Automatic annotation (TrEMBL):
A Pfam family assignment: SIS_2
HAMAP family, A to Z: UPF0309 (MF_01240)
SUPFAM superfamilies in UniProt: SIS domain (SSF53697)
UniProt similarity note: Belongs to the UPF0309 family.
Gene3D superfamilies linked to this entry: Glucose-6-phosphate isomerase like protein, domain 1 (3.40.50.10490)
Every SIS domain range: 36-216
Protein's UniProt name: UPF0309 protein RND15_14970
Record PANTHER family: PHOSPHOHEPTOSE ISOMERASE, SEDOHEPTULOSE 7-PHOSPHATE ISOMERASE / DNAA INITIATOR-ASSOCIATING FACTOR FOR REPLICATION INITIATION
Length: 251
């Protein structure tokens, strides 16, 4: 069976967005990678947070083959994926004032660490307050968002600000408001979301940049190997032992 028209259109749209991000966000990706490398050298820890489907790119850089072993997920109950019932609860929790502060105050983060905050719209209280509170605690914040939302929507945070307003580095995914790249006769709503593809690529580009930065400084970056290749488990076990004080997902 040949590829459908819509499948080809989706791939073209995703590839176009990836090219835009590669070309237009190169400087910010470099800055984010350098910040990660500096934090690793200084003995800091690395965390990533995303709400709802924005948690998927955060999870994608934690405990995975080819990934930086020091990346930790900062989980918020009810906000990781769509595993809560009803699924709409996750969206509701993202709009709860004060939740981010409670999570951070009861997490292992400390001054000098880096936190990725991933939110497509960047307009809800949870990601905005996550960035604000993290910076107040002395963390550096890398925001991953679509800046287009800041001009086409209004903030739901009491300050009227967006995630991008509270970050040390902002990575713009270029995703259009609504996160749907396709339309077709007979389909009442736009479809074909590309935010996960693009945001995951952004995150991996930053990790790759950080690995290169560390290598240039003469430091072998602590990357994980696949457990499905010979010697992978032994390699990872040694990495975990060497950097155990900065890895929280194995405790």
């Amino acid at each position: 069976m040949s590829e459908s028209k819509q499948a080809g259109q989706y791939f073209d749209a995703a590839i176009g967005l990836l090219r835009r991000v590669r070309d237009e966000e190169a400087e910010n990706i470099g800055a984010a990678g350098a910040l990660i490398a500096e934090t690793v050298v200084a003995g800091g820890r690395l965390f990533a947070f995303g709400a709802g489907h924005s948690s998927l790119p955060a999870q994608d850089v934690v405990y995975r083959a080819g990934g930086l072993a020091l990346m930790n997920l900062l989980p918020v109950p009810g906000m990781v994926g769509v595993d809560v019932m009803p699924a709409t609860l996750g969206s509701a929790l993202e709009r709860v004032d004060g939740l981010a502060g409670v999570v951070l105050d009861n997490s292992p983060v400390r001054a000098g660490d880096v936190l990725f905050v991933i939110s497509l719209s960047g307009r809800n209280p949870l990601p905005v307050e996550m960035a604000m509170h993290a910076r107040a605690l002395g963390l550096k914040v890398i925001g991953v968002t679509s800046v287009a939302y800041t001009t086409a929507t209004t903030s739901r945070h009491s300050s009227g600000s967006f995630l991008k307003d509270h970050c040390d580095v902002v990575l713009d995914s270029k995703i259009a408001v609504g996160d749907a790249e396709l339309s077709a006769d007979g389909v009442g709503a736009p479809f074909g979301p590309a935010s996960t593809v693009v945001t995951s690529a952004l995150m991996q580009a930053v990790m790759a940049t950080a690995a290169g930065e560390l290598a240039e400084r003469g430091i072998d970056p602590p990357m994980l190997r696949s457990g499905n290749v010979d010697g992978g488990h032994d390699w990872n076990r040694q990495i975990m032992a060497d950097y155990g004080d900065r890895i929280f997902y194995q405790r």
